[in-house]
Design goal:
The protein is an alpha+beta fold. Helix content is 43%, strand content 29%. The strands form two sheets. Strands 2-3-5-6 form a four-stranded antiparallel β-sheet. It has a two-stranded parallel sheet with strand order 1-4. The chain starts with a helix and ends with a strand. This is Lipoprotein.
């Protein structure tokens, strides 16, 4: 009997939330197309090698010169965050894709399957490597 009430409650919640949220299926190829450019990753590594530390923000990185500004031209994400673990490990998060923002402005609904992800930087022997993960 409790299961029937639970199913009914879940169904009502889902019906009510349709006014506020939407879910757009995204294929792996679509997510791969919306990944940040590998040139951004290479410039972050360049910053680490030249400055001897990871950047704290996109703005700090862009303030260091034209080559960093140029790489972020056309960057499709409006929110970024740099989480520094130590001198050899850092994670770069990116969210709020421009298509998700325009979709919200047009429909007034939040997308549950948004573009975004992270780039994990780490040291392998004497070189820095990175892995891009989309969600």
């Amino acid at each position: 009997m409790k299961q029937i009430y639970l199913v009914a409650l879940a169904s009502l919640t889902m019906l009510a939330s349709c006014d506020y949220f939407m879910y757009t299926p995204r294929f792996k190829s679509q997510k791969r197309r919306e990944q940040p450019s590998i040139f951004i990753c290479e410039r972050i590594v360049d910053f680490r090698l030249e400055e001897g530390r990871w950047p704290n923000s996109k703005e700090e990185m862009m303030a260091k010169g034209k080559k960093y500004q140029d790489v972020f031209n056309g960057f499709k994400y409006t929110w970024t965050d740099f989480k520094i673990k130590d001198s050899n490990t850092m994670t770069f998060y990116f969210e709020d894709h421009i298509t998700d923002n325009t979709s919200y402005e047009e429909t007034g609904k939040s997308e549950l399957n948004t573009y975004g992800g992270r780039v994990i930087f780490y040291k392998v022997k004497d070189k820095f490597a990175y892995t891009i993960k989309m969600h």
